[in-house]
Amino acid sequence: MLLVKQLTGEYALKEPTLAPYRAKVQKMMAEFKTVSLSHTRRTANRHADALATLATKMPKEKREYNITVTNCPIPSALQSQLTEPPQQDWRSEILAQIKTQKEKGQLATKELSKYFVLYEELYRVEQDGILTRALSPIEAQHRLNEVHSQICGQATEIALYRRLQRLGYFWPTMKKEADDLQSHCANCMAPPQHSEACTVEEKEDWRRPYIEYLTNGAEPTSKSEASKLRKKAKRFQLHEGKLYRKSFGGEILRLELCGPKKKNMKPGQLSWIP
After folding, report:
1. Residue 218 domain boundaries
2. How does pLDDT run across 180-217, given as a tens digit for each residue?
3. In the chain, how many domains are there?
4. Is 193 a domain residue?
5. Are residues 215 and 175 in the same domain?
6. Distance set, CA 165 to CA 168, 182, 214, 216 (Å)
7. Structure letter (DSSP) for residue 115
8. Does a structural domain hold residue 162?
9. What InterPro entries would the database entry show (predicted)?
10. Three-state DSSP class for 254?
11. Over the stretch 83-106, which tens digit does the pLDDT of each residue have?
12. Residue 201: CA atoms inside 13 Å, Cβ hemisphere, count?
């Protein structure tokens, strides 16, 4: 589920060992017209598990095999990336600076320290730890249009720039191009439907736990929360279903919530009993 949500852009990726594999899958997905990613839970995958278990239990003919084991320093899934010729674009200068500083043993500058090379691919570490792959101008334009077509008109979704970032893409002008594309798109700028914008939210009255405790001794299930409630309840007093508090000077104060007649009071503010 984690891998699927990282590929769809719902989750961001911060683990360097997974970054090259996601980049490989994203390039493979571009070769298909449509791609659907979904996670099958274990409870819905019992038949496949049973079939795999049955295959391991089946008797096999006794034969001798000569197997040659070769140690490959680079994962086979990533070898094709090393054979691709590097493109001359904005990344070339950064790659050259990283190589030069490594050869001279110098420390990277503040801006250059945000980049690192993994299997000949240039990556950038964002401020919040998200790993993004540096794209060429051609791939950047393709990804920009691709992701925009997927979320166009979805007013409740995150911004196009954030979606590109979560998918692990980066180029210097990504934020500006994404904002410009969304600001000039009629579907993206359309206001949400009235039915979608209206929500009903009920907020719990903070006095309820104290009233229930003083009325019938109800306590939270957590021992720590119950201990805190018993300690704080000593400051309160219940009379005719209304909650009062004892001030430091000994006066009795009534606890109220702000109403239309008490414009200068804040929610939960103390007021004197007449």
Report:
1. 207-254
2. 998 888 888 776 555 555 555 556 677 888 888 888 88
3. 3
4. no
5. no
6. 5, 15, 52, 53
7. E
8. yes
9. RNaseH_domain, RNaseH_sf
10. strand
11. 555 567 899 989 888 888 877 766
12. 4
